[in-house]
Amino acid sequence: TRRFDVVIAGGGAAGIATAASLLKRRPGTTVAIIDPATEHYYQPGWTLVGAGVFTPEQTRRSEVTLIPQAANWIRETVTGFDPEHNQVRLGDGSSVEYTTLVVALGIKLDWAGIEGLVDTLGKNGVTSNYRYDLAPYTWKLVQGLNSGTAIFTQPPMPIKCAGAPQKAAYLSCDAWRRRGVKDAISVEFDTCTPGLFGVAAFVPALMAYIRRYNIAFNPKTRLVKVDGASRIATFEKTTDSGTETIERKFDMLHVVPPQAPPDVVRDSKLADAAGWVSVDPTTLRHTAYANVFALGDCAGTSNAKTAAAVRKQAPVVAYNVAATLDHRAVGAEYDGYGACPLTVERGKIVLAEFAYNGALTPTLPKWLLDGQKPTWLAWFLKEKIMPLLYWDFMLRGREIMVKPKVKA
Ligand code: FAD
């Protein structure tokens, strides 16, 4: 059995960022990253692919160019965790052994969780920005629609980038408005959540756009079935008196799939009651196994599941993993920061930044960028700066503005 100081399960945003940060902090550490994927995606860019701003290729790079030189890439699937014996099982039947483990497997998109959806995705007007190959279809549909009904849906929480379902609605409406066809298209946003956004401070700015685009906002409404051929979406709406079933005809349907912890995590000893990796929200260390850490979408923490959160979590985990290897205390602390750039129109964003319990944590001073208002500066950051920050800083372990807070 191969043995490493650190085994990282998953080479997405969180896995690569942690490996890079760790190798900078503690050169000479033996690190293995386990991920079968040969391509790596900048998923936050998919919202802009769906709006015709980015090409799909701008959001994709080959994994081999991102794995840090000093790390070992094991191109296998993680099939099991054995934290009692410090081992991870792989798809080829072998195991790897670790001194410390970092779990960064992301979130599972449960496309099959909506009846009929899988058969009609990518045709019959049914699309989703949650897949690389489908985001361009969103833009194609937006360009092709001149009248009719467009429906945008959001599944139950938690999901990655909770704002993404409504971002798709706003950017589509903006494109229709600019083309002069908006009044001929009736738009609805159906969400399982009781409100538009989880942090109250950002709701007024978003509600203003719901009104501006004349979007019918339907809370507590769950998409349960899609009949692509006849273009009918079926919803269940929770009311005071029970559940009501509603059928709607659509010309365009943008679906965000239900989301869940990865099966391999849920079925392991690492999982909490809901199936996510059970970690301390501050140190990101496992609640039962002191040499196990988790970050990113698979972690059982209440922050917004975003790449922005990963940017702050990775240095914390890297610091605490290094401390564990050196028999020091895990002193680095994560405050729950996450960010959701809500693209309310082309050229303007409401930049929601917040930490645990909805505490507002703006990066820039309010006079420069007021996150509770739509600003062009936030759009500029999203379009020009954040991709750069992701590829060339976060994934390379270059940490600007993310010094982890360390307890003495
Ligand atoms: P991922 O980056 O998804 O990586 C998970 C990795 O694990 C993958 O490489 C996968 O191949 C690997 N893996 C899975 N299962 C296994 C297995 N069994 N064995 C081995 N490897 C495995 N975030 C923002 O900050 N701002 C935004 O505006 C934003 N917008 C978004 C819009 C959309 C449409 C989407 C889909 C996401 C958006 N996000 C945004 C969220 C962001 O992309 C994720 O939060 C981030 O990628 C999480 O990183 P991660 O490493 O946890 O998961």
UniProtKB/TrEMBL annotation:
GO biological process: sulfide oxidation, using sulfide:quinone oxidoreductase
Any one GO molecular function term: sulfide:quinone oxidoreductase activity
Protein origin, superkingdom: Bacteria
FAD/NAD(P)-binding domain segment(s): 4-124
Record's keyword terms, sorted: FAD, Flavoprotein, Oxidoreductase, Quinone, Transferase, Transit peptide
S-adenosyl-L-methionine listed as a keyword: no
Cofactor(s) the record lists: FAD
rRNA-binding in keyword set: no
Annotated protein name in UniProt: TIGR01244 family sulfur transferase
